[in-house]
What we know:
With 145 residues, the protein is of the alpha+beta class. The chain folds into 2 domains: 4-85, Orthogonal Bundle (Arc Repressor Mutant, subunit A), CATH 1.10.10.10; 93-143, Dna Ligase, domain 1, CATH 3.30.1490.190. The chain has 6 helices and 6 strands; from the N terminus they run ααβααββββαβα. It has helices spanning 4-14, 21-32, 39-49, 55-67, 109-121, 138-143, and strands at residues 37-38, 71-75, 81-85, 93-97, 103-106, 132-135. The strands form 2 sheets. Strands 1-3-2 form a 3-stranded antiparallel sheet. The mean pLDDT is 95. Its main location: cytoplasm. This is Ferric uptake regulation protein. One of its GO terms (molecular function) is DNA-binding transcription factor activity. Its cofactor is Mn(2+); Fe(2+); Zn(2+).
Amino acid sequence: MKAAQDIFTEYLSKQRLKMTPQRRTILDVFLNEEGHISSEELYNLIRKEDSSIGQATVYRTLKLLAESGIAKTVDFNDGVIRYEHKYGHEHHDHLVCECCGKTIEAVDHEIEHLQKELAKKHGFVLTHHEMYLFGVCKECQEKSE
Ligand SMILES: [Zn+2]
Ligand SMILES: [Zn+2]
């Protein structure tokens, strides 16, 4: 498998953009973070590495990372768009706690299969899907008892 850095460099050159040291730093910091991160959270980490990188650059670079397939956006319905690793990561869906905001990543092969069947039934060829299950996590249920 190609390194994420190479994928991004190739994508940039197709867009007639260059892999600058700033973009490289943003990519590396992003790749070091597991989980889901907003543009603002990433900016706060990057600031510590290189204070010359502005918030708008982080925002734009994250968009490029998503377009290149390195990252994807996740939306937990709280008004914040977050990014997670996509390249080299298996597809997963999310369970989201509406009380504390905790997210759980999960895959159920039966549900995956059923989604394909459902699409087929309607004459669709499935390209991708997003499944978010919203609810209250175990800890939050216990707290409210
Ligand atoms: Zn919770
Ligand atoms: Zn995730």
